[in-house]
Design a protein that fits this description.
The chain has helices at 15-27, 61-80, 106-118, 128-134, 157-170, 214-219, 285-299, 346-362, 376-379; strands at 4-11, 33-37, 53-54, 97-101, 124-126, 145-149, 153-154, 174-177, 180-186, 189-195, 200-208, 227-239, 249-251, 256-261, 265-270, 306-319, 326-329, 336-340. It is of the alpha/beta class and 390 residues long.
Length: 390
């Protein structure tokens, strides 16, 4: 069996792998790059199962910078990804993110907001009175206020994914429908990958963009990542009382979050400590009826009357060390690059991360230094220190 040879093999063709492929081809035209994706329908991809949010409101400076670049990219995405006069449509809606703040979280939220504002971000402090005035359905009793990012918003995740994928292909990247069974190496040097079919692919660099599957793939090369797949569930609701206009993605300190969706629906989710670990895409209405609906109705009393239309489950690639990305070349294995552990933020971080990984591989100067997320901290058991909202 002939062994195909590439300069770079990317494992995983979701948003992270497709963005990395695009930036590689833009950075080094003529590079031989292959993206190996086991599910070209993307029916189980975390990209397409997410609520597709982009926000500036992080308490870690580097994450804010990553989002600033994401905003820039999304604003110009349809034009940048045009191919032969055809532009993707990503339905980018900047309807805001509203973080409700209680007394316990006030200091950290105010500190984060000041940092964001010092960086030039558009973030505002809203009093309970202003919240009631802007969103009269909300009951802010018990909250001291909220931080509001008017330029935060949501978009069509599938549209962005397909935009990056199609553009990368038009520039010479090859997408391969296959499943990687092993990352191959000789000594401390990566040599490529082996597929489930038994076929070997040779490459000088391999990028792990396997999302929730990244740890299993990494272990085949002897690399242990503190990343595990955690199931997250989303529920689509048809409320009897409709908001007068779009509701921002609204976060409560408990972890409950919701926003309006096209068609007059409300999308709702909440991360819970008991969320199951493992590859599973089942969802249960019991979770909504028993846990989430009562909390939603307390904050939005008019949503006491509603109908659960549907639900779905996707996977977070949770970095159990510090819930931040793991980016860069693995120190103990030359040629193995990681873009893993985004803990629910990967979709909005893909533009900056894809560009950064491409710069690392091609040894270009960095437009944005993301070395703080380097994998050395995994070996040293040194979590990034981040306080406040995440």
């Amino acid at each position: 069996m002939n062994c195909k040879t590439y300069d770079v093999v990317i494992i995983g063709g979701g948003i992270m792998g497709s963005a990395t492929a695009y930036y590689l081809m833009r950075t080094a035209p003529g590079l031989r790059a292959a993206v190996i994706e086991m599910d070209p329908s993307y029916s189980r991809s975390s990209t397409t199962l997410s609520m597709a949010n982009a926000r500036i409101q992080f308490s870690f400076r580097s994450n804010v910078q990553i989002s600033q670049y994401a905003f820039e990219v999304l604003e110009n995405f349809e034009q940048e990804m045009e191919i032969d006069g055809n532009r993707p449509s990503i339905a980018y809606r900047r309807e805001g993110n509203l973080f409700m703040v209680n007394e316990d979280g006030r200091m950290s939220s105010e500190n984060s907001m000041k940092m964001q504002q010092d960086m030039g971000c558009d973030v505002e402090w809203w009093t309970p009175e202003r919240i009631r005035e802007r969103f009269p359905l909300y009951n802010p009793e018990g909250y001291v206020g909220a931080t509001f990012g008017p330029k935060d918003g949501h978009f069509d995740a599938y549209g962005v994914l397909m935009g990056y994928r199609a553009k990368a292909i038009s520039m010479g990247a090859e997408f391969v429908h296959a499943e990687v069974s092993e990352i191959t190496k000789t000594g401390k040097r990566i040599t490529g990958v082996r597929l489930k079919t038994g076929e070997s692919i040779s490459a000088g660099s391999v990028v792990n963009c396997a999302g929730a599957w990244c740890s299993g793939i990494a272990r085949t090369a002897g690399v242990n990542l503190p990343v595990q797949p955690v199931k997250r569930q989303i529920f689509a609701l048809d409320t009897k009382v409709k908001p007068d206009g779009p509701l921002p993605l609204t976060y409560l300190p408990s972890g409950l979050y919701f926003r309006t969706e096209t068609g007059g629906l409300i999308l709702l989710g909440k991360s819970l400590p008991e969320d199951p670990v493992g590859i599973s895409f089942s969802w249960e209405d019991k979770r909504f009826y028993e846990l989430l609906w009562p909390e939603l109705a307390e904050f939005v009393p008019e949503f006491e009357s509603l109908k659960l239309v549907r639900g779905w489950a996707g996977l977070y690639a949770m970095n159990t060390l510090d819930e931040n990305a793991i980016l860069g070349e693995w120190p103990e294995l030359e040629g193995l690059f990681l873009a893993n552990g985004f803990s629910g933020h990967g979709l909005q971080q893909a533009p900056a991360v894809g560009r950064y990984i491409a710069e690392l591989i091609t040894k270009q100067a960095h437009a944005m230094d993301l070395s703080i997320f380097g994998p050395e901290r995994i070996l040293e058991n040194r979590p990034l220190n981040e306080n406040g909202i995440y």
